[in-house]
């Protein structure tokens, strides 16, 4: 019973082995009432995933409330004052998350605008003196250095800071803990790296990293500081659990989006639609509060910068693409170009997803070779980017300035403005330089600019579109903090504006609005969000009249995109191997029961309520599981129960077993402990920690013969399913309630039947793992019609 | 075993009776390891609730997928074409919901604006001729008649059409089916009644009813038409289940909000924040689509009406309160008045909730007395309203028109405009008449009007505020379709504007914006929504710059309101007795297990896999339950199992038992049926219907001795919990997964123990019911500190 839990299905499993080799038999040939033949395979459940650019061991999070005696005691002993403390802290932390995210976003914006600004001023200076080569060397050199700083920091100190971080946050909120995602080092590298990478003119944005930064701040605040220097403040102890941390990180993510786009409602909706897995009305409200704080901070900062205190930052400020002054008038016929934009966005978006997937796989191969390879890859991309941005404007012809414009407006001599002189004579401007030789934010602002129907030539826009397609594909995977929003906006706005030029004679809609719609369509085609993108664009463009056509474009683009492949974040999640559980179970999951899944797993290891130390040590050493069902046979006979009755006590987490060994909470005889004994030894706070490796625990031979009363540590209320439950419905339960372990109970009731048939985890319920153990389901997947 | 399921806890239950009378013993004095003493009470689970103004029997909905053999067969046999049909229908229905809601909203707006418009024109006509009494009689008479039409329709044909309908929709989406909520009669009465009630000048809005109308349309479309004239179209059969209907009704509700406020994003968020219980990303998207359709329809209609084809409808159109032309500039000091508005909104909102609760209880007493009482109540309210609206403006003094305004603007002679002449001489206007003697929409538009700092006197605003406080309390409960949004907006805008006047010298914010903020604060204080209200106000006022202060006001008002009482919708839900399950379990629910709940319920009634007809008839007659666990003892011995082993087969719904009896699917001997036998008799479509009353079924004595094979009808995958599960966690499961029945399994494993200990339903998990059976929990509720 102890070593090998009693399984009633021994006969069946014998049967299974017999038929193991005739896998080709039609699994559907059985009668409906006979269980399908079991495959003699095991569920592979390797908890490994790409974290940053490294393969790491990942763990699941405990979002379920671990209702053991200690928890209940602590919970009962919480006074009203403590409950108020908790609520107060919750709101204070939400406030601090908003405040700090707002401040750091301000800092990043200031740094980028100033670094990139002075860089461009110097370059313009060289060009004015016609010292083109020196200008090129300076431009390339500065970009090279900035990229190097960003990459070295990322590669050396925090590989998890590379990329946008949004997929990992999404996975975290789904219940997957990727190590080192939310540490202080990661935060620091992400901030500096983001400033470096964006200032270096690489084709990436600060939006994704800001989401990660917001989440990092939230996580650090919730934990009371970085890993090794935590504040042990009593009030913070309430937040030392995965559930409250999850809520905080949701706040952080939406604050990040809000800071990136200055779109508070859009930020909240982004968290809701794209990032979060669970959502409560109360959380909606708190997230909204954090976002409001961010907006107030950003507003105050912009107010301050208006007076010129922020160096080169000023003018347009943070509202990237304000088109509120345009009177939008459109008619029924305008539906057609709008629909065309939507379709193009969907097709290009899914094509982008497809190609980016290929590039990322290639990059993974390169990145795996070592740190130096990562650095070289980044630097090559930087050199290529610099060369393109500087060199391509020479291809464009000079356009004479519109005579109605004053000299100070066209050509522009400084950094800002729509009409860059570049290599052109006085009175002329180079439209491609206006788009390329500037920060990405300014490029977007220029291409979104309205009432400028003749400013950009089709030829320039084609070059712009082409180069940003190439850069967008090859920049994303390098080891620097990089966001996906901006590259996609740049690409989308280019083809939107081209379409606007083409439609010119037939439409009333401004070219700038076409560019906005193009950007929206490509976002929807690649990221597959609707409501949140709609609101973000609403808040970005500050023009409510655009709402109906934006909605239309987004709906069409998403629909078209969904015909081809999943969203970019899902692709990245899959590529990284993060075990994200999707909201909807696959249809074929109705054809298989959890009992069948459990049968192909190694037998479940159970413990007894009062267990020998040697057995615990053995279990910890020999099994990698993180949860063990605790089952008692009728040691203390119960009234009304027959002899040999067994009882399901609950579920025990590995970390608590390690805790017991570490604290050496051993008994000399096999007995139950009293409440005071437990409370003397353990605080509730101990339960929330993750207690490292088993190897660190030394147990003497003498202690091996002693006993441990596990009862007070058992989660007495684990969620369970009966073995006849279909995997589809079990998955719904697993995800909706946020489980880490799900116990499978027998459908038979008899003495001698083990009260637990097995235990299922996140990995066991992943479609890919099930399909590899039950290939016949794969066959039925293709054609649903099977009778 | 058949008559009384074997309960292992017989000894315990004996024990229970022994201690039944010492209820006063401290329930916490036991050791932690002993179960708390059971109370010898039963869980009262009366499925009765106020539906409209009548007490009716309510049922729960089956949102869980009933995975029985028939479902599985049907599901497996669905071809790809059928899956595409389903997806196509889903989107078509979402489109139709949007289209029809948009059209009906158009119709309602047209009707109201024209009826009320001609009424006011005639009244103005009488007043101009100084025939004040005739004017009063005409005004009161028309209002009286319109109210009578609305009330008679409501009382006579569809009592469920009274009120806003939002609480019932909220309950439906939570899993409670209130009868006759979504029928064709209800829809019709709601439309006509809403037109009548709003045209009658009663203090109520068309917003709530539009939400109900949208949901009715969705439900009717999904079911293929009204109850008795359903279209039996094959494609529609996929929607004949509670799950798909739920999604459709969510679409309908958000379309309704969208139509009411022309706020598509706000509509979606309203559904999400306030109405829906479950939410998926895919649904978010479809809801958004419906809302987009509504907006397009409304826009097209307004475009058409601009040319004057819609009678008196025109001008302002549907955008009720467009303040987009105001340049909002505010500074740090403006935070103070804004915070004050928020606090006032919170206090007044919760006070309004409190008083409305009292009024509604009083009205319930009146309404219970019969139809004629309801009618009289409505008519009295109508007379009082008419008298106030007509009489009070005489109290206001005449104000001379601003000389800068032309004669056509001030005083206004027609229906619209800000300066009603009323009883004043030429060149003067009556500001109170401007606010009162007009439609509610126009009143809001007037009071929101900006750049009019001297137009309204404080005295007039005080009267306006006072009268609408009284009307707002006493109008809502009468038997006509009535929305809560507008009365609250009217009240809130009044005190907002008053505060604006008071703050005049110290602030830059326009009085009109103060009115908007006041309305928002009272909404948040009463309805306790944040994000959706924020977006609705954003879309209403068409001014993004207002966003930060709106957020601030909403957050403060909600926080203050939450200190006093729950939201108005929760109060109404509670008042109506609808068993709404809240997202968060009560804290004391951790102290009680489902096993304890089950123990105070009558013993669970189980069936066998192959059951005698007489037993089925008996069970149906003697127990009101809607679900029965099916348990088999080892008739067909299983390898590896001891004798006497029992098996949990699943859960059978009452409706399917009735179906079996109706179809007379009886066997002569006790045997299992083959798949083809089942398929011959039942279609999957049959399973979705709700099969009426047991009384309709006649079974002969001969048939009584026959058998039924229940296996194909059993839901083999019910969600289960072990009896040691805490009620708090069971409730989370129940609500998150959307259950109707939850089986409770024993924690002991032994021959002779029943495989099912009990069954829990929505009613059993309601806090109120649990507290009445376990009063000691109530005591612990107050003071959480108990050790």
UniProtKB/TrEMBL annotation, chains A, B:
Specify whether 4Fe-4S is a keyword of the entry: no
Which stretches are tagged as biased composition: Basic and acidic residues? 1-19
Q: Which parts of the chain span the membrane according to its record? A: 86-112, 132-155, 283-302, 335-355, 375-396, 459-492, 544-561
| Gene Ontology molecular function, alphabetical | nitrate:proton symporter activity; voltage-gated chloride channel activity
Topology with regard to the membrane?
Multi-pass membrane protein
- Show the segment(s) annotated as Disordered: 1-31
InterPro entries noted in UniProt: CBS_dom (IPR000644), CBS_dom_sf (IPR046342), Cl-channel/antiporter (IPR051280), Cl-channel_core (IPR014743), Cl_channel_pln (IPR002251), ClC (IPR001807)
Where in or outside the cell? Membrane
Coarse class of the protein's main subcellular location: membrane
Q: Which UniProt keywords apply?
A: CBS domain, Chloride, Chloride channel, Ion channel, Ion transport, Membrane, Repeat, Transmembrane, Transmembrane helix, Transport, Voltage-gated channel
Question: Is the keyword Cell wall biogenesis/degradation in the record?
Answer: no
CBS domain mapped to chain residues = 714-778
Q: Which GO terms describe its cellular component?
A: chloride channel complex; plant-type vacuole membrane
List the PROSITE patterns hit by this protein, alphabetically. Answer: CBS
Protein family membership:
Belongs to the chloride channel (TC 2.A.49) family.
Protein's name according to its UniProt entry: Chloride channel protein
Origin organism is Escallonia rubra
Lineage, broadest ranks:
Eukaryota, Viridiplantae, Streptophyta, Embryophyta, Tracheophyta
């Amino acid at each position: 019973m102890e070593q090998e839990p009693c399984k009633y299905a021994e006969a069946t499993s014998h049967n299974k082995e017999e038929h193991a080799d005739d896998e080709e038999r039609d699994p559907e040939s059985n009668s409906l009432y006979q269980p399908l033949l079991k495959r003699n395979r095991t569920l592979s459940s390797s908890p490994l995933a790409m974290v940053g650019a490294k393969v790491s061991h990942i763990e699941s999070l405990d979002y379920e409330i671990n209702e053991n005696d200690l928890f209940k005691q602590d919970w009962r002993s919480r006074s009203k004052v403590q409950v108020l403390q908790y609520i107060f802290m919750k709101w204070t932390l939400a406030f601090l998350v908003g405040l700090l995210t707002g401040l750091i976003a301000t800092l990043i914006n200031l740094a980028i605008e100033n670094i990139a600004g002075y860089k461009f001023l110097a370059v313009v200076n060289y060009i004015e003196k016609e010292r083109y080569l020196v200008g090129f060397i300076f431009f390339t050199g500065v970009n090279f250095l900035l990229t190097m700083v960003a990459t070295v920091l990322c590669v050396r100190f925090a590989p998890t800071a590379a990329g946008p971080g949004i997929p990992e946050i999404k996975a975290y909120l789904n219940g997957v803990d990727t190590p080192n995602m939310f540490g202080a080092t990661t935060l620091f590298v992400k901030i500096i790296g983001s400033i470096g990478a964006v200032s270096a003119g690489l084709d990436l944005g600060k939006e994704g990293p800001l989401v990660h930064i917001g989440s990092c701040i939230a996580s650090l605040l919730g934990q009371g500081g970085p890993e090794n220097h935590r504040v042990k403040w009593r009030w913070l102890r309430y937040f030392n659990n995965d559930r409250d941390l999850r809520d905080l990180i949701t706040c952080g993510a939406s604050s990040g989006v809000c800071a990136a786009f200055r779109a508070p409602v859009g930020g909240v909706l982004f968290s809701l639609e794209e990032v979060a897995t669970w959502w409560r009305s109360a959380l909606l409200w708190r997230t909204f509060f954090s976002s409001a704080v961010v907006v107030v901070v950003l507003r105050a900062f912009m107010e301050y910068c208006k007076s010129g205190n922020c160096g080169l930052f000023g003018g347009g400020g943070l509202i990237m693409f304000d088109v509120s002054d345009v009177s939008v008038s459109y008619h029924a016929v305008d539906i057609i170009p709008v629909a065309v934009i939507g379709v193009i966005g969907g097709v290009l978006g899914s094509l982008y997803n497809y190609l980016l997937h290929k590039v990322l796989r290639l990059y993974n191969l390169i990145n795996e070779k070592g740190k130096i390879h990562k650095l070289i890859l980044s630097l090559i991309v930087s050199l290529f980017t610099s060369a393109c941005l500087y060199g391509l404007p020479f291809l464009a012809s000079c356009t004479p300035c519109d005579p109605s414009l004053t000299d100070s407006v066209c050509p522009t001599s400084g950094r800002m403005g729509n009409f860059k002189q570049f290599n052109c004579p006085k009175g002329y401007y180079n439209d491609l330089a206006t788009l390329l030789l500037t920060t990405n934010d300014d490029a977007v602002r220029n291409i979104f600019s309205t009432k400028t129907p003749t400013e950009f030539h089709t030829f320039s826009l084609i070059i712009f579109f082409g180069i940003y397609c190439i850069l967008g594909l090859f920049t994303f995977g390098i080891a620097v903090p990089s966001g996906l929003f901006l590259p996609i906006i740049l690409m989308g706005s280019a083809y939107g504006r081209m379409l606007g030029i083409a439609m010119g004679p037939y439409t009333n809609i401004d070219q700038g609005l076409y560019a906005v719609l193009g950007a929206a369509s490509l976002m929807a085609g690649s990221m597959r969000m609707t409501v949140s993108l709609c609101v973000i664009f609403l808040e970005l463009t500050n023009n409510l009249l655009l709402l109906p056509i934006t909605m239309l474009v987004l709906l069409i683009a998403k629909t078209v995109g969904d015909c081809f492949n999943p969203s970019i974040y899902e692709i990245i999640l899959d590529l990284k191997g993060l075990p994200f559980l999707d909201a909807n179970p696959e249809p074929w999951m109705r054809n298989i029961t959890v009992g069948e899944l459990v049968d192909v797993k190694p037998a479940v290891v159970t413990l007894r309520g009062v267990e020998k130390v040697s057995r615990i040590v053995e279990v910890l050493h020999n099994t990698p599981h993180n949860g063990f069902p605790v089952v008692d046979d009728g040691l203390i006979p119960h009234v009304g129960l027959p002899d040999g009755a067994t009882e399901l006590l609950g579920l025990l987490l590995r970390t608590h077993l390690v805790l017991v060994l570490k604290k050496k909470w051993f008994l000399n005889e096999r007995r139950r402990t009293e409440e005071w004994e437990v409370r003397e030894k353990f605080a509730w706070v101990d339960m929330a920690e993750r207690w490292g490796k088993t190897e660190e625990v030394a147990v003497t031979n003498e202690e091996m013969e002693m006993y441990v009363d596990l009862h007070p540590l058992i989660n007495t209320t684990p969620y369970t399913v009966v073995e006849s439950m279909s995997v589809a419905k079990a998955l719904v339960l697993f995800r909706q309630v946020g489980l880490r372990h799900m116990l499978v109970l027998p459908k038979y009731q008899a003495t001698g039947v083990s009260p637990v048939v097995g235990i299922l985890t996140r990995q066991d319920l992943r479609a890919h793992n099930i399909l590899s153990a039950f290939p016949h389901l794969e066959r039925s997947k293709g054609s649903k019609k099977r009778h």
